[in-house]
């Protein structure tokens, strides 16, 4: 194989260009580029069907979906969240002038630990912003119990969870709102994009207004909303991507199975496997590097990179150690022992539909030493 070409942790999936061209021709003809055009409406409908949810609002990206969700629910004061996620999760709180309160994660799922949530609740707490990390669902039952008891809103950052199925139901129906990302690096991409799943027509309407600057009609603006709209190009790509998503996930499954087969026997490497889901999406392939491996996570990270395998340390550093959060009392390492440990040991390996067999063999060979 050509070793001059790096193997990245992911490679965006795209349909054949010739299948996209008719959509482009139609957009050129219609001159409707954004603001809820034909493809936006169609994609929104098809997406709701695919995800088995009733109400979807498309967004230009997941971050704008998070910002708008917090605004739509009128969240105030403090919000309980996880430090083990991508920066956007906590940043969305700051953009809404909310204070993140970090709570440690569970070792089994790497999601927020419901057993630690109640001790972090104060009179100022108004919501929980949990993340289905690597597409592994949170303990939604416990989170819902705590939220009901303390009258808190629940938003799920489901940026990693596209297409995950759980007990025949969509866990995107849990909580008050769920937010998806269709960023280029995600299992399902629309170049950039995202969506908010809501549970009634009134909330969807409010979210749709907020993502359009707060306009409710031509002349009336009811809130200081934002420009969160998905354009027609992304929506058209979304329609095409939906057709191929099940085979994309199946291909990812096959790659994951091969990694399990060869990496499970290696002493000191622990593959993190999805649990309690009917269909995982294999959006990432995280492994934990234990002491017994004989090489630290960072040594391995740099060795693989020198060999042209661009692995990623998702999520290192923890969000709570970023300069804008590290002075919060909830950001202390002692308060977050599990997240701190995992963040020092986790490594995400390349997984994407067109990862070739010889490329995967090379990666496995490098890990086997
Ligand atoms: C957990 C998580 N939340 C939010 C986002 C933000 O999504 P977007 O890039 O679509 O704004 C991402 C990824 O980018 C993510 O991984």
Spatial strand arrangement across the major sheet: 2-8-7-6-5-3-4
User: What is the overall shape?
Assistant: globular
Query: Which architecture of the largest domain per CATH?
Result: 3-Layer(aba) Sandwich
Could you give the order of the helices and strands?
Answer: EHHEHEHEEHEEEHHEEHEHEH
Q: CATH topology of the largest domain, anyone?
A: Aspartate Aminotransferase, domain 2
In which range does the helix fraction lie?
25-40%
Taking the sheet with the most strands, its summary is: 7 strands, mixed
DSSP, total strands: 12
The whole-number mean of residue pLDDT values reads 97
Cα radius of gyration in angstroms: 21 Å
Uncertain parts: none
What's the CATH H-level superfamily name of the largest domain? Type I PLP-dependent aspartate aminotransferase-like (Major domain)
The molecules bound to the chains, other than polymers, are:
pyridoxal-5'-phosphate
How many discrete domains? Answer: 2
Q: Report the sheet-strand fraction.
A: 5-15%
N→C terminal distance: 19 Å
Number of helices: 10
Structural class, by secondary structure, is alpha/beta
Classify the oligomer: single chain
The CATH class of the largest domain turns out to be Alpha Beta
């Amino acid at each position: 194989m050509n070793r001059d070409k790096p193997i990245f942790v992911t490679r965006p999936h795209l349909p054949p260009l010739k299948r996209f061209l008719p959509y482009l021709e139609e957009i050129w003809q219609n001159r409707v580029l954004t603001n809820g055009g034909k493809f936006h409406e169609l994609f929104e409908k098809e997406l709701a069907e695919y995800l088995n949810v009733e109400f979807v609002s498309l967004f230009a990206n997941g971050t704008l979906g998070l910002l708008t969700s917090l605004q739509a629910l009128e969240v105030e004061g403090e919000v309980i969240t996880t430090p083990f996620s991508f920066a956007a999760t906590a940043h969305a709180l700051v953009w809404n002038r909310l204070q993140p309160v970090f709570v440690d994660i569970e070792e089994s799922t790497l999601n927020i630990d419901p057993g630690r949530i109640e001790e972090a609740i104060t009179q100022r707490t108004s919501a929980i912003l949990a993340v289905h990390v690597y597409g592994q669902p949170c303990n939604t039952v416990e989170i819902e119990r705590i939220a009901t008891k303390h009258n808190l809103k629940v938003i799920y950052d489901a940026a990693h969870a596209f297409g995950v199925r759980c007990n025949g139901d969509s866990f995107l129906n849990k909580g008050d709102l769920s937010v998806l990302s269709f960023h280029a690096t995600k299992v399902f991409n629309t170049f950039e994009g995202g969506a908010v799943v809501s549970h009634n027509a009134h909330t969807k309407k409010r979210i749709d207004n907020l993502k359009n600057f707060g306009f409710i009609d031509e002349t009336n603006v009811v809130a200081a909303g934002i420009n969160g709209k998905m354009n027609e190009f992304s929506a058209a790509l979304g329609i095409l991507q939906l057709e191929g998503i099940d085979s994309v996930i199946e291909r990812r499954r096959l790659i994951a199975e091969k990694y399990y087969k060869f990496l499970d026997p290696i002493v000191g490497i622990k593959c993190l496997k999805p649990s309690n889901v009917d269909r995982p999406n294999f959006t990432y392939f995280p492994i934990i590097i234990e002491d017994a491996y004989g090489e630290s996570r960072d040594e391995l990270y740099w060795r693989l990179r020198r060999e042209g395998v661009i692995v990623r340390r998702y999520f290192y550093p923890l969000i709570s150690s970023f300069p804008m959060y590290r002075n919060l009392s909830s950001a202390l390492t002692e308060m977050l022992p599990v997240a701190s440990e995992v963040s020092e040991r986790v490594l995400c390996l390349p997984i994407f539909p067109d990862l070739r067999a010889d490329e995967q063999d090379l990666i496995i060979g490098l890990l086997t030493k």
